[in-house]
Amino acid sequence: VAQAHSLGLLLALLLPVVSTSLPGTVVRLNEAVLSYVSEIGKAPLQQALQVTVPYFLDWNGEVYQPTRIQILDIHVPQFDLKFIADFGVRMLVAANFTFQVFRVPEPLELTLPVVLLADARVAQGSIRTPVVSISACFPLFSSAVVFEGSGSVAPGLLVPVQKHIEAVLRNKLCLSLSNLVQGLNVHLGTLIGLNPVGPESQIRYSMINAPNITKDYISLDIDAILLLLGKPIVLPVEATHFVLPAHVGADGTMVTVGLSQDLFDSALLLLQKAGALNLDITGLLKSENNLLNTSMLGQLIPEVARQFPEPMPVALKVRLGTTPVATLRTNNATIQLQPFVEVQAVASNSAFQSLFSFDVVVNLSLQLSMSKAKLQGTTSVLGDIQLTVASSNVGFIDTNQVRPLTDALFQKPLLDHLNALLGMGIALPNVVNLHYVNPKVFVCEGYVVISSGLLYQR
Ligand SMILES: *[C@@H]1O[C@H](CO)[C@@H](O)[C@H](O)[C@H]1NC(C)=O
Ligand SMILES: *[C@@H]1O[C@H](CO)[C@@H](O)[C@H](O)[C@H]1NC(C)=O
Ligand SMILES: *[C@@H]1O[C@H](CO)[C@@H](O)[C@H](O)[C@H]1NC(C)=O
Ligand SMILES: *[C@@H]1O[C@H](CO)[C@@H](O)[C@H](O)[C@H]1NC(C)=O
Ligand SMILES: *[C@@H]1O[C@H](CO)[C@@H](O)[C@H](O)[C@H]1NC(C)=O
């Protein structure tokens, strides 16, 4: 019994009741991304195909003469990519290789048209990033075309030279393509890098499962872990699996990113846990536009005037004990905050004396926008701020009487503070050197969609 008991205890310690990872993000790469990849991929592809060709042994009737062959130029007139459902991407590369064969007495120049067909599987790697691998690759060769200025070529030479070149390219081109794709994987691996969310807090994304691939897109289920001082925060509830509907956001964009309500709630939880939402508003004496002093308050609350015949500065301590709640409705995002505000007099020896406190409920409208790879927010107050006196050391307080004062004193600093914080933004899933361009943000029922182009830039 004792053993069973300690085993239970051990399990209870080992198994977290709730999780730290949040499956609340979907990144969908649409067809338009393929055209972009083929556009920016041509140059690196051309470079990768630049292989070395070993010497050709030319039989001159008596001896074999080693003849050097060099690629003068690779022209890629066609590079097509398309999605293959449940698999990955099929590519077709049409390339014209121009070779120089250094035979005596004069070099021979020839062009060999090659079509390279390859299938690239897109899967989930061991570090939970996307991994691309070449699973099938065939070069198809056409007849070499001899450059006109090359003079007459014995047909006895052209055929063996072409065979020699083809034998070399057959192996090397596919290997080059695999190497190119390996480089791409290094890039994709940076998906799991840490990105800041707020002060001392970060977010880390990774893939949850194998990508879903259709003939129109590749969709990645992404997990987020939110870290505070390097430690993952524990989420209060198990997040539900987020499914991004098929046709959302703008048509024809390269990438569609879906962020669930859970992700927003968790980011707010992180900011709250970090204490980043708390704020102190402190009045200074003898400053022109500062209403925060006991003589001012004393005009509204007689007991304050009685206790503080000499004017003293007043401080508002704004604390968020409860996590803000985000609500996402079609074209309408709001946040509800419930701060606890303590009003204190600051005595000459810097000791604080609590005057009274109140519970606040404030609804904020949230405008979302993207800057760099970050989703930023700006808030403004929706409707009235609700005040309820929680405690008082200065007798009865008429909330209607202090409302104008608190509205004026509290609202602007709170919004400034929140907007500075939300302006830091939450990074979307990203990889190094690939930037979101012309992103558009859509607020939908229970989630947010970002439709964006991509730009590769070192
Ligand atoms: C090079 O490629 C283009 C386009 O595929 C083709 O029309 C042309 O004939 C090729 N040139 C040679 C010399 O083979
Ligand atoms: C991928 O497919 C699975 C099973 O069909 C589904 O549960 C999941 O939501 C899909 N994910 C995405 C990102 O479409
Ligand atoms: C207290 O606040 C009022 C209103 O802003 C101001 O007129 C007055 O000068 C302040 N008193 C001191 C001592 O700062
Ligand atoms: C958003 O919803 C809130 C209530 O949830 C409402 O007060 C506000 O007017 C709405 N804003 C817009 C732009 O529809
Ligand atoms: C905030 O919004 C909620 C939901 O729309 C509403 O029930 C509540 O009355 C609002 N509170 C304030 C203080 O405006």
Q: Roughly what is the average pLDDT, rounded to an integer?
A: 89
What is the level-2 CATH architecture name of the largest domain? Super Roll
Q: Give the number of domains.
A: 2
Q: What percent of residues adopt helix (DSSP H or I)?
A: 25-40%
Short description:
The chain has helices at 2-14, 31-48, 155-188, 261-273, 294-300, 302-307, 399-424, and strands spanning 21-30, 53-59, 64-84, 88-101, 108-124, 130-141, 145-146, 194-198, 201-207, 212-213, 217-228, 231-232, 255-260, 279-282, 314-319, 325-329, 332-337, 340-346, 352-371, 374-392, 426-427, 434-444, 447-456.
Task: Describe the protein.
Keywords: Signal. Belongs to the BPI/LBP/Plunc superfamily. BPI/LBP family. This is BPI fold containing family B member 2. Residues 249-452 form the Lipid-binding serum glycoprotein C-terminal domain. One of its GO terms (molecular function) is lipid binding. This protein is of the alpha+beta class and 458 residues long. The protein folds into two domains: 31-189, Bactericidal permeability-increasing protein, domain 1 (Super Roll), CATH 3.15.10.10; 244-456, Bactericidal permeability-increasing protein, domain 2. The protein is built from seven helices and 23 strands. Strands 1, 8, 9, 10, 11, 12, 13, 22 and 23 form a nine-stranded antiparallel β-sheet that branches. Strands 14, 15, 16, 17, 18, 19, 20 and 21 form an eight-stranded antiparallel β-sheet that branches. The chain is rod-shaped, with a radius of gyration of 33 Å. The protein starts with a helix and ends with a strand. Bound molecules: 2-acetamido-2-deoxy-beta-D-glucopyranose (5 copies). The site of one 2-acetamido-2-deoxy-beta-D-glucopyranose has 6 residues, from strand 19 and strand 20.
